[in-house]
Amino acid sequence: MLVVGSETSLDLSLLAAVVPLVARGRARANVRHHGNPRSLAVRRLWLQDESFYLAAVGGCSEGARLRELATSVGALRRILA
After folding, report:
1. Pick from 2-11, 23-32, 36-45, 66-75: least confident
2. pTM (2 decimals)?
3. N or C terminus of the chain with fewer C-beta within 10 Å?
């Protein structure tokens, strides 16, 4: 399942396919938009015996991506509670 918190018109299904590989350390993602590199932060979270992969792309800094991931983790926990 792919859940996106973005207003982009881009197809993010390919990104969703590689996120688990990046989180496991089996691949390194080089994300580009209009030829410009975008950073990717990925976290793996175990909740209720299930593995969830959360990713944040772009942003102005690593700190901004990590804050977005922390917000996503909180939202996921509330949804599954």
Report:
1. 2-11
2. 0.66
3. N
